[in-house]
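Support request from a user on the community tier.

User writes: "When I paste my structure tokens into the form, the page sometimes reloads and wipes my input. The last time it worked, I copied everything first. Here is what I submitted, just in case something in the input itself triggers the reload:"
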């Protein structure tokens, strides 16, 4: 459930992002977008964009999302929402909090990202952008593929309604597995039902659900930690980092982020201990060498090794 910040937004009339470059309307509130999608029998397209200085987000917004080709395609199929984060153009604290809650709900880990939701507000697909994906027709092609995923998902859910026991659990599991992992926790009640029908965890959903819940909870703690550092409350931040690193429950990717982002800052910037910082960076890489962050850490290690030796 969203906080009071969401309630404040819901009390407002539908607002539109300033300076649209096409006739495609971009809303700012996802709940009202879902209501509109139900009436119009469409899906919801939620665009998560990084700050203004994020060159890729800016390029995707200008060269893809706000083009006539994209508008023509999207306007017939989606109610669109644009979720922005603070940049050169500030947004209100209420809006920032609301957008952060949406980012956490859908576990959006990189920008720009498009999250597709059905008319009930449940996500079924995600398209993640990058420097190599800056053509509107390519994005439209990716969106067309998401509808195929939705058709398969809906068919499995329909079959599950007429099944019971492990047969139903298996159909539900196949459906959830079609959803990107970062969005699967939005189907937590379905996953809990699968676990209940599969007490021996033959489908592996008990472990999957446990990992997803831990990831969500630890991500929320990382957001709290980020705010402490942003407010320069370093003593409180250091205590939180030490507590999290001491936990045996900490996921490898989260340990990597804690070490690379916060312990590194603690020793390299604040304590000026570069040798210790190098050891922390190496530990960060070793924590999850196959992660998305790992290649950048490896490059950083190579440069830093020359500095400390």
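"...and here is what came back when it finally went through:"
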């Amino acid at each position: 459930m969203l906080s009071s910040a969401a309630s404040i937004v819901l009390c407002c009339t539908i607002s539109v992002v300033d300076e649209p470059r096409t006739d495609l309307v971009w809303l700012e509130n996802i709940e009202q977008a879902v209501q509109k999608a139900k009436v119009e029998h469409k899906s919801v397209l939620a665009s998560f964009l990084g700050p203004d200085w994020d060159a890729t987000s800016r390029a995707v917004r200008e060269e893809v999302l706000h083009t006539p080709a994209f508008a023509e395609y999207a306007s017939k199929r989606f109610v669109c929402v644009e979720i922005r984060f603070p940049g050169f153009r500030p947004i209100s604290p209420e809006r920032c909090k609301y957008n952060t809650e949406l980012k956490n709900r859908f576990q959006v880990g990189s920008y720009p990202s498009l999250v597709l939701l059905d008319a009930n507000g449940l996500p079924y697909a995600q398209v993640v952008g990058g420097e190599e994906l800056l053509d509107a027709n390519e994005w439209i092609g990716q969106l067309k593929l998401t509808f195929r995923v939705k058709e398969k998902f809906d068919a499995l859910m329909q079959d599950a309604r007429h099944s019971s026991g492990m047969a139903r659990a298996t159909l539900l599991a196949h459906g959830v597995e079609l959803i990107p992992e970062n969005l699967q926790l939005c189907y937590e009640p379905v996953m809990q039902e699968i676990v209940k029908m599969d007490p021996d965890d033959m489908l592996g959903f008990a472990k999957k659900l446990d990992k997803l819940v831990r990831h969500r909870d630890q991500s929320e703690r990382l957001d709290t930690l980020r705010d402490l550092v942003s407010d320069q409350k370093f003593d409180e931040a250091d205590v939180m980092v030490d507590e999290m690193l001491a936990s045996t429950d900490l996921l490898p990717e989260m340990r990597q982020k804690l070490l690379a982002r916060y312990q590194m800052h603690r020793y390299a910037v604040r304590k000026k201990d570069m040798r210790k910082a190098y050891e922390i960076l190496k530990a960060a890489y070793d924590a999850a060498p196959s992660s998305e962050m790992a290649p950048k850490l490896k490059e950083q290690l190579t440069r830093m090794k020359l500095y400390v030796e």
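Agent notes: The reload is a front-end session timeout and is unrelated to the input. The mean pLDDT is 89. The CA atoms of residues 104 and 220 lie 7 Å apart. Escalated to web team.
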